[in-house]
Amino acid sequence: MPQFSALTLPDASRRLDLSPARWIWYPSERTLPNTVVLFRHTINIPAPLRSAIGWIAADSRYLLTIDGVRVQWGPAPADPRRMEVDPLELQRLLTPGNHTIGVTVLYYGVGDGTHPVGKPGFIFTLTTTSADGTTATLVSDDSWQSHLSTAWPAGNYKRWYVRAFQEMFDARKHPPGWDTNGFLTDGRWLHAMVVDCPPSLPPSCSSYPDHLLDARATRNGSCLVPRSIPMLREHPVPVDALVEAYTITWHRPAEEYFDVLPPNAFTAAPLTVTSAGAGSWSVDLDGATAKALTFALRDQHVGFPYFTIDAPAGTIVELMVQEGHTPGGPPLLNTHFHAWARFVCAGGVQTFQTLDYEAARWIQLHIRGTAAKVTISNVGMLRRVFPWPVEPRASVNEPALQRLMDSCVNTLYNSAQETAVDGMGRERQQYSGDGAHQLHAAYMTFGEARIGARFLATFSQGLMIDGYFFDCWPAYDRLARVMERQLDMTPWGPLLDHSVGFGFDIFHHHLYTADTAAVREPFIRYQRFVHYLHSIRQEDGLLPVTDLGIPAVWIDHVAYQYGKPLHKQCAFNLYAAAMLRSAFAPVARALGHAD
């Protein structure tokens, strides 16, 4: 059998070396999950700029601000050995004078639906060119100031097994204005530590101690590459209406409820809320009960929920989101996957926004902790959308069909962003099979091939040593399933039917685009899977669907799950044969592999 590398590196011309920038972090010897570190640096712009371009990346996610103004959020989910680095174009924001660059970095640690594994690190490089041609370069190094945030408590538990960040933010512990000019640092700010990792490799290759997994990626099998799709666009979407409200009487501590969901923890009574003006509402807190206000967006969105509150210091707000809800249903929206964030007010008027993005049509604010009149306003979501080159407009005369068309378009906005996602609110994982179907609409309706090309590259990087693919990648879930399968604790292994389906994904991309460059690297890996299929054939020439060890055949349909293994085997073999004949062979010929 031919030998294939599990992760074939791209040509050297497609890799990035960000020298002389360095990977930096807060001075430390270990980093707990869900740690947030703040980085800041002041830059002087002596004259108008012709350009200000560079690169930025972090493990796991970053939020970039200039003088306190949000600029961008990233990077896109990627294989930890093949990090994509985001481009910077900042000339509009860097007028002559002093500016403060602020970067909030969130380290997931272990296990998110978009992030399988990694090590902490932040890297930045920016080259400015003045109108007269004078250039200057700012890079991340130990001259940057860093702050270990206590506003987001480090080491907090995971929200759910495929969602890492359970956000709890205490504004009383957050340094106000830290990313603006004139801020004076104190002893809580330290010069950043340079991480032992070349600026041509992701931080998963560093020697920084990994107390969570004891993992380290090989340096000869890893690289940095430029972001392969445009940055997502962000725009605010206000809620459509306040739909319902309740007074919540707690019989158990509210914190206990949100942590462990004890039964009969509260009772709810309908509440009439006073309008305090257009898009503004007031409630009276008595210190003993809580108020829950439920808002609806007009459509389902993916983005960063936000709200403004005028309340005393110590007021606590749990922000809950849901994709589906029926008014008159559960009074608290903490009904699936622990989709809540907690904010503690510092006092006065404050605007809060989640650090990580959510999927929601419903936003609920559960307000408690003080005795005072509280005013809520400016509730909405900073929506994130892929910059599609074509805006589809499907018009029909039947209103019900028009709603269906509009919903289909909106679903694609929400599910195909940086990755092709199955369950944006639940898990945000990128599958072949369950998630790749939407790529057909991206190609044929939205006129977009780049997100499909990125899907081929990132999914194919989840090739296991034995020759089959993780059925969702990049994602944490299947890493855990490998261990659980070894102990016979789950039916979910890397699903071979999804690996078969990936052959069709490669073929369809080539069919729609004739882009041989995008399919070449995935095809090299897919050959390894084809050899794996041949290696597991039984004496009768057929592929088995049971007793496969770590991998599994799912074909998720009840007709195959109850006493009909031969039916399932028949379906799987027909599926694999169709892929080999109608997908793998045509791509092989197109790439000059007629043999």
In words, what does this structure look like?
This protein is α+β, with helices and mostly antiparallel strands and 595 residues long. The chain is 19% helix and 31% strand. It has eight helices and 27 strands. Strands 11, 15, 16, 17, 18, 19, 20, 21, 22, 23, 24 and 25 form a twelve-stranded mixed beta sheet that branches. It has a six-stranded antiparallel beta sheet with strand order 5-4-7-2-10-12, with no helix packed on it. A five-stranded mixed beta sheet has the order 9-8-3-6-14, with no helix packed on it. Helix 6 runs parallel beside helix 8 (565-590).
Tell me the β content: 25-35%
Number of helices: 8
**Amount of helix:** 10-25%
Helix/strand structural class: alpha+beta
Distance separating the two termini: 14 Å
**Main pleated sheet:** 12 strands, mixed
Taking all Cα atoms into account, the compactness measure Rg is 25 Å
Number of strands: 27
Q: Looking at the structure, what is the overall shape?
A: globular
What average pLDDT do the residues reach? 94
Indicate the low-confidence ranges by residue numbers: 1-5
